[in-house]
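Whiteboard transcription, Tuesday session. T.W. wrote the structure tokens on the left side:
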């Protein structure tokens, strides 16, 4: 063998090795479409949103068809209520069938959230399995392995539905992860799906926020999820975000459709590629378009009633939207203000939902309207001080001390309950 043949042989060997590495890398990587908080059946100020929800579901199928993920992961709050109508349940069934048909080899994992009925998820669990759909609604402490879903040749999912803390024994998740470790001879990626509130998350746009809970779910720390997973797929919080302190492994994908006007941020699904072996997941987001967006007039702050009416009159007649009006007032809105707004919007495709009033002196003092999210971020003593200033009352240091003492007593009573 001359030196040219030897060089060719060596180059061929290197090429084969590179191809092997590429094939092995692609084989190990697991591609996930992570979504949550669909809230099917949600209405906005009594307006039906079926058209938007169907549009979102059609986009889900298109994204699956284009991305070809190994796993479609829906992390809770599939429905908006625990007793969805037959029409809403049919909407979900049709959507899952369509998504399955777009990529028949893909595994679909759906877990229940706090808005869902866990038992309702379990009813048709067996027939759904024939379509690669795993519906997991309740915690099974007797059979923890029932929460493990294998993605053949790609990895494992530990699927946890929402449950009150007392129904999940200490160390339950870690014991399941250890079981996965025993099964995972090929060191394939491991994903955990959970529906909860993690400390440090951005709660912008959420209702039901207290010092201890968001939307009725207690805060947990990222450390409580233990170790042994490569990606933590979270549901419940509606703003997409990575969790600080998770080393880029824990993410809320956010809701694909805004549920309230305060959710004035982008909505999407997360396409996550998980490689395992300690490598951080790779993210791509795909926007979900809403044919009926939620619009606030004016876009920021508040304006006097006459100006708000002008903005509503100027809003294009051919653009469908839900409209919230922010009006600055000294006292009260004019009698019949909503009827006046509805009359202005008649003939337009937009729907006036709500008139939000803001005291003019509060607007001038802050140069902007305090949003619901801003309000929640204020300390109670600050809100009390603002209220005292509004009514012209004295709120000195002695009053602040008395207020904080009373607040401490209330917090003690809450903890004891």
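and on the right, the sequence the group agreed on:
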């Amino acid at each position: 063998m001359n030196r040219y043949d030897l060089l060719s042989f060596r180059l061929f060997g290197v090429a084969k090795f590179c191809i092997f590495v590429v094939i092995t890398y692609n084989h190990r990587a697991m591609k996930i479409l992570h979504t949550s908080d669909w809230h099917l059946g949600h209405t906005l100020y009594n307006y039906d949103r079926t058209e938007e929800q169907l549009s979102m579901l059609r986009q889900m199928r298109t994204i699956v068809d284009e991305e070809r993920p190994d796993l479609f992961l829906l992390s809770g709050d599939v429905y908006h209520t625990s007793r969805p109508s037959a029409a809403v349940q049919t909407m979900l069934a049709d959507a899952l069938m369509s998504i399955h048909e777009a990529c028949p080899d893909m595994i679909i994992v759906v877990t229940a959230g706090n808005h869902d009925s866990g038992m309702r998820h379990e009813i048709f669990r067996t027939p759904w399995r024939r379509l690669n759909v795993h519906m997991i609604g309740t915690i099974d402490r007797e059979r923890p392995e029932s929460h493990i879903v294998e993605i053949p040749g790609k990895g494992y999912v530990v699927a946890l539905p929402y449950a009150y803390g007392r129904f999940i024994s200490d160390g339950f998740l870690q014991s399941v992860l250890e079981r996965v470790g025993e099964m995972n001879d090929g060191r394939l990626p491991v994903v955990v799906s959970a529906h909860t509130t993690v400390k440090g998350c951005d709660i912008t746009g959420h209702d039901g926020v207290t010092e201890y809970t968001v939307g009725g779910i207690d805060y947990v720390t990222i450390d409580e999820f233990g170790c042994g997973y490569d990606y933590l797929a979270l549901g419940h919080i509606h703003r997409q975000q990575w969790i600080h302190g998770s080393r880029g492994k824990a993410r809320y994908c956010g809701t694909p459709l805004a549920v309230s006007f305060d959710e004035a941020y982008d909505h999407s699904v997360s396409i996550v590629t998980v490689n395992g072996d300690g490598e951080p997941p790779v993210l791509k987001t795909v926007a979900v378009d809403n044919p009926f967006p939620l619009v606030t007039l004016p876009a920021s702050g508040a304006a006097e009633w006459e100006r708000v009416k002008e903005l509503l009159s100027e809003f294009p007649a051919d653009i469908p939207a839900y409209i919230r009006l922010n009006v600055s007032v000294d006292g009260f809105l004019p009698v019949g203000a909503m009827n006046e707004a509805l009359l202005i919007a008649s003939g337009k495709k937009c729907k006036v939902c709500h008139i939000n009033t803001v005291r003019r002196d509060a607007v001038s003092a802050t140069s902007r309207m305090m949003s619901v999210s801003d309000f929640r971020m204020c300390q109670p003593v600050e809100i009390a001080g603002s209220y005292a200033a509004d009514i012209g009352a004295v709120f000195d240091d002695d009053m602040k001390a008395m207020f904080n003492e009373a607040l401490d007593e209330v917090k003690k009573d809450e903890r004891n309950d």
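Someone added at the bottom: Confidence is low (pLDDT under 50) at residues 14-26, 363-368.
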